[in-house]
């Protein structure tokens, strides 16, 4: 039996922040590193809890689309019910070591006709001057679906479509803009993210425990799901497919290979023509990566991008800014509670042989 302590707090509370205020526009100094700290980087935002940062450069500026963590009265469970987020803020930075601006609340659960609760990790994309905010949320039946909201600016406001994306399920959408003008959504997460309840895009609920429905340990692990986006960015243009992640011998990573198999938080970036799929291994807390020669894969496991952070979850994005690469990620430095996280940024290095240098978020 795997460890069922997903989303349980690991560290005691060090500091309690107010998470209810709704600033209109606030500006904070961002600190990329502090040599007196045991952490590689410092929290970018200190007046809200933020997590799962999806960073993009739109029109020369960095925009960050994170989850907005809050304390609520929902009891903690192994499916992450206490990750009870209710809205999204958008942030921007001129450079990864510059100041960060909070553009305020851009979408709330009450603005989404089909969503009941739990606005988890979002992402955004730009096409032809329109901006698309993609987000997972639970519907009336407590089933995660993925929605989209549209705006005229990277900072919104965003208007949600009346229904979730047809054929969408599970969590952690990330939308990759390929150099040929195609857009692909990657999504999925196991345990609380419900991916194990689906086979071939069909809901097949095998039970309520986080691991019910997972393949046996000697069977291929579940992978993230990919679908090309329609021209209007509002629907899938094709039937979603499972992405395969292979080991060094060309065999599927197995479900029991917890240090390397996919759990949640898929992200794609392209470097020197190679597609890099990075993802969280969940219960073993790594951000791992695998490479392939096209968006659909298969991808071959290559190693670890980011070692475990403080807190249970590990979730990131990788972005190129003026020819340099950065990873945005989170930990629980401010709160000590795994569901009240804070986002950070640090440089990421591609090595000459195509691998990525492993980053240690805790330096002692
Ligand atoms: O923020 C809620 C969930 O925690 C995300 O969707 C997962 O990726 C994990 O970071």
UniProtKB/TrEMBL annotation:
Query: Pfam families of this UniProt entry?
Result: Glyco_hydro_43
Keyword Hydrolase recorded: yes
The record, for InterPro entries, names: Glyco_hydro_43, Glyco_hydro_beta-prop_sf, Glycosyl_Hydrlase_43_Enz
Molecular function, one GO term: hydrolase activity, hydrolyzing O-glycosyl compounds
Note the superkingdom of the native organism: Bacteria
- Which residue numbers mark the site Important for catalytic activity, responsible for pKa modulation of the active site Glu and correct orientation of both the proton donor and substrate? 172
Q: Which GO terms describe its biological process?
A: xylan catabolic process
List the signal peptide residues.
none
Q: What is this protein called?
A: Family 43 glycosylhydrolase
Organism of origin is: Algoriphagus aquimarinus
């Amino acid at each position: 039996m795997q460890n069922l302590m997903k989303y349980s707090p690991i560290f005691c509370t060090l500091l309690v922040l107010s998470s209810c205020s709704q600033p209109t526009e606030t500006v904070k100094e961002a600190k990329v590193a502090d040599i007196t700290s045991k952490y590689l980087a410092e929290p970018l935002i200190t007046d809200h809890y933020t997590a799962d940062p999806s960073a993009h450069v739109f029109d020369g500026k960095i925009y960050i689309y994170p989850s907005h963590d809050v304390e609520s009265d929902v009891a903690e469970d192994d499916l992450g019910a206490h990750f009870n987020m209710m809205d999204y803020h958008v942030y921007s930075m001129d450079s990864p070591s510059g100041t960060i601006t909070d553009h305020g609340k851009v979408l709330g659960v009450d603005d989404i006709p089909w969503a009941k609760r739990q606005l988890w990790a979002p992402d955004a994309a730009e096409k032809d001057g329109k901006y698309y905010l993609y987000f997972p949320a639970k519907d009336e039946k407590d089933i995660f679906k993925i929605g989209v909201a549209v705006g005229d600016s990277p900072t919104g406001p965003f208007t949600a479509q009346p229904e979730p994306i047809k054929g969408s399920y599970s969590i952690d959408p990330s939308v990759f803009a390929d150099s040929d003008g195609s857009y692909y959504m990657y999504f999925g997460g196991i345990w609380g993210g419900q991916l194990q309840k689906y086979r071939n895009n069909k809901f097949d609920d095998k039970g309520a425990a986080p691991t019910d429905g997972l393949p046996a340990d000697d069977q291929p692990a579940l992978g993230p799901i990919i679908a090309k986006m329609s021209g209007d960015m509002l629907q899938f243009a094709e039937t979603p497919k499972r992405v395969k992640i292979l080991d060094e011998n060309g065999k599927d990573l197995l479900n029991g290979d917890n240090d390397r198999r996919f759990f949640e938080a898929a992200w794609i970036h392209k470097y020197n023509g190679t597609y890099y799929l990075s993802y969280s291994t969940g219960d073993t807390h790594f951000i791992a990566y695998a490479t392939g020669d096209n968006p659909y894969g298969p991808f071959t496991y290559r190693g670890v991008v980011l070692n475990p952070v403080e807190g249970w979850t590990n979730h990131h994005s990788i972005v190129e800014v003026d020819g340099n690469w950065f990873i945005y990620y989170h930990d629980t430095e401010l709160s000590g509670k795994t569901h009240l996280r804070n986002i950070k940024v640090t440089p990421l290095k591609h090595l000459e042989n195509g691998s990525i240098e492993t980053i240690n978020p805790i330096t002692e």
